Amino acid sequence: MTDGFSLQMLIDYAETCSVDFADMLAFSMMNQDSFSTLEFRNALGSFATGVTVVTTALDTDCPVGVTASSFNSVSLDPPLVLWSLAKTSQSLTAFRDSGHFAIHVLSSNQELLSNRFARAGENKFQDVVWEAGTLGSPVLREYSAKFECKTVHQYEGGDHIIFVGEVVTFDHRDHAPLLFHAGKYAESRPKVAAEIISGVELEQGRFTEDFFLYLLSRSHFQTSRPTWEKLAELGLDQVEYFTISAAAINGPVTLDYLQAALQHTGHDPDQAKLDAMVERHLLIEQDGAYGPSERAREDFLEILSVAKAYEDDLLEHFSASEIAEGKRILKKIIELSGEAIPPLWPRPQ
């Protein structure tokens, strides 16, 4: 459970949030002889939970908030929800006496906010945008869902107080929720059907838009378009671009290296092309090896800037975990399909 958290953060988190986390620590302290602390912790971590920030205030100048994963629904009629807070929490008095609270279900991009409200003893609301809600609880601007509640019951629950609230107003947005599982933050994803659609109809001699290799190929051509347009603007062709790229990354490089590294692209140079690039002041030749000229480096940087800006625009539509998973899949495809193709970047010895 400590991945991404210091021990003190974990203790603070347990004091201010869910029954599960606090009970885990208390149980481990009292039952070390009969249970494996690590195994029990791992067992508790098998249950994935959402992450919430619960807020209240005795007056508008003193907002209070904690991170909690103990949130749960109780009833639809009347609309009731519950959550719990450790008796040792510094925020307990405010929640017991205020008569109201607001629960914010966090979105997948709100890890930092979760960490902020999980810590004790700091100004948690500094630089956080909020306003007073219907009952007076602080309402954060960003969330996946929000429930403003009137406190209707408080129950003893061992070393916790269980708060039951009647929902007086709520809101939800189309944001993926933040999850916590096995000691780490996680994201939810819809489970796909077990059947994989091939996208190839051999009997009809055609393929569909679900053909995986077609999707890879089309995405390559579409995402390369801004780069090719910049090449045309600079008066460079694709052979020159690939040659300058390889030379800039690994240069100076020989003709043999360039042909081996770039043959799979269909844009590898021959000797005549290299000579022409030297003559155009795109390459510098020394002892049979070629490196990019100052002009070529400037052009390459300009092209790379265009590609990076386009990448940034595209990746805004994906979460960090989706990007990481996409890269993992693409690297696996490259590994499986490119055994005979030398890597562009030298492998460490």
TrEMBL record:
What UniProt keywords are attached to this protein's entry?
Answer: Oxidoreductase
- For whether the record's keyword set contains Oxidoreductase, the answer is yes
Matches recorded under InterPro entries: Flavin_Rdtase-like_dom, NADH-dep_flavin_reductase, Split_barrel_FMN-bd, WH-like_DNA-bd_sf, WH_DNA-bd_sf
The Flavin reductase like domain covers 44-187
The Gene Ontology terms for molecular function here are: FMN binding; riboflavin reductase (NADPH) activity
Q: Which family does it belong to?
A: Belongs to the non-flavoprotein flavin reductase family.
The record's listing under PANTHER family reads: FLAVIN REDUCTASE (PTHR30466), FLAVIN-DEPENDENT MONOOXYGENASE, REDUCTASE SUBUNIT HSAB (PTHR30466:SF11)
Q: What is this protein called?
A: Flavin reductase like domain-containing protein
Report the source organism: Sphingopyxis witflariensis
Which lineage is the organism of this entry classified under, starting from the top rank? Bacteria, Pseudomonadati, Pseudomonadota, Alphaproteobacteria, Sphingomonadales
